[in-house]
Amino acid sequence: MVSHSVPMGYESLRTVLLHTDPNLRFEIAQRIPKIRLTEKAVPLRIGSLSFEKCTTTVNSQSYKLGVYRLCHTEDILNEFTFRNKCGGVSRDLDQYGFEVPSAFDPILNGDVSFRTRFADVHRRDTEEIEHSLQLSLRDYEEALAKINQLESEGKTVEEFLAGPMSEDDQRIRDMLEIPKEQLQSGLKGYRSLLLPFHYRRNNLSPPYTYYIQLTISKGNVTTIQRYEYNQKLYEAAKKLNEILFANRPVIIVNQFKGNSFNVLRLPIGFKIFANFVSGYNEQIVPISSIVDSSRALAEVRMVINHEFIPIFQLSIVRNAEKLSIFPHQGHIDQLARAFETMENQRIHIGFSQYDKPSANNYFQLVQGWLSTERNVGSKITFGLKTDKIGEEVLELVRNGNEGTESTERCVTFLQSDATKVRISYSPRDKGKSYKFLLNALILKA
């Protein structure tokens, strides 16, 4: 019997693509040019999406770009092995092999900048850097020579360190405790770092060939593609993201994570419909430029790591169904005042395992949250590390309000706007940074 395949209709193809893993869709579209227009037109659904300087991660699959160096001489062949195995250098290289700071890369149309004052502006080709590398190389050489000398004399490093030492020996004393294999490896590393200075001084071309490498990884499976290095790394990143995301009218992302403090090389007009957004507070403003604000996000999560930036009136923040904030302990005063501008129905405050807020700190935050009128059903939660802190907070609430009603781990009191506040805490089953959850809830009186 002869079977004949029936071509898939347009609507059937759209339905199949709609429910196909996005990474598989990218691969199919590259292999079958005839369906590219249809594939682009079908809404793209992504579970999690994040961008870094040269890496795009879609669900559990990453697309990483780097500069790969193919060495032509055996003496430096191993010096780039580790960087090459990691996908290459994440910065452009100049004609002598120096890494070019990414902060000097231009911002192109469609790009979104996450650069801060901590941007990569450090040059690696200055005389000061060369001098520092030469001193380190000298110390490694002398330490290795001393260890070889001791071995030839039948002495141990421990015996040598226990005896009298010259001024030069004192200078390398700590390095003598480094294993010999690590010293040998470090010696090669410093010699490698000094090579670009040698090439520039003598106007020589490095003995290796540059390639742009694309490393596609998912779990233990890795695919590598290499291309001629005839464009800048940021241009290649731009082209990669255009291939993946350009000309898509609808991109639906469940979780968008802001991981970068660099420039995201995005297609012009790139927009996503997101459900959950997370990042540092410095990143939320640039994130808002690519997140469609026509519908409320389920949650915005921000970590305040440096400067406290009051961005709570930003559309995607103000309209989020839940706002989660992770400040440092030093931000408590600013956060308590900022509650006046937070209109979110649900707010969560969490501290890192290194912070140790007191009961007074939590009580100050609760008071800040209650300083403005809240709708019935509004709730704020805090992570607590101990049962004792929870009880101390409730005691402060009892002492600070008249006519409170108390039950186990719970205090309720009336407000002047005909609402009541219930403050309680309870243990968490799977707490990591904190084991209890403190709740403040606005109820109808």
Summarize the structure.
This protein has helices at 10-18, 22-31, 36-41, 81-85, 127-152, 157-162, 167-171, 180-201, 233-245, 281-288, 315-318, 332-338, 359-370, 387-400; strands at residues 44-51, 55-58, 61-71, 112-113, 208-218, 221-228, 251-258, 263-264, 273-280, 299-303, 322-326, 346-349, 379-384, 405-407, 410-414, 419-427, 436-444.
Description:
It is a single chain. This protein is α/β, with parallel strands linked by helices. The protein has three domains: 11-42, no CATH class; 65-211, no CATH class; 235-444, no CATH class. The protein is 33% helix and 24% strand. The protein has helices at residues 10-18, 22-31, 36-41, 81-85, 127-152, 157-162, 167-171, 180-201, 233-245, 281-288, 315-318, 332-338, 359-370, 387-400; strands at 44-51, 55-58, 61-71, 112-113, 208-218, 221-228, 251-258, 263-264, 273-280, 299-303, 322-326, 346-349, 379-384, 405-407, 410-414, 419-427, 436-444. The strands form two sheets. Strands 6-5-3-2-1-7-9-10-11-12-13-17-16-15-14 form a 15-stranded mixed beta sheet. Strands 4-8 form a two-stranded antiparallel sheet. Helix 5 runs antiparallel to helix 8, helix 12 packs parallel to helix 13 and helix 13 (359-370) packs across helix 14. The longest helix is centred in the N-terminal third of the chain and has 26 residues, at 127-152. The radius of gyration is 29 Å and the shape is flat. The termini are far apart. The mean pLDDT is 88. InterPro entries: DUF3557.
Layout of strands and helices, then pairs:
Elements: H1 10-18, H2 22-31, H3 36-41, E1 44-51, E2 55-58, E3 61-71, H4 81-85, E4 112-113, H5 127-152, H6 157-162, H7 167-171, H8 180-201, E5 208-218, E6 221-228, H9 233-245, E7 251-258, E8 263-264, E9 273-280, H10 281-288, E10 299-303, H11 315-318, E11 322-326, H12 332-338, E12 346-349, H13 359-370, E13 379-384, H14 387-400, E14 405-407, E15 410-414, E16 419-427, E17 436-444
Parallel strand pairs: 1-7, 7-9, 9-10, 10-11, 11-12, 12-13
Antiparallel strand pairs: 1-2, 2-3, 3-5, 4-8, 5-6, 13-17, 14-15, 15-16, 16-17
InterPro entries: DUF3557
Pfam families: DUF3557
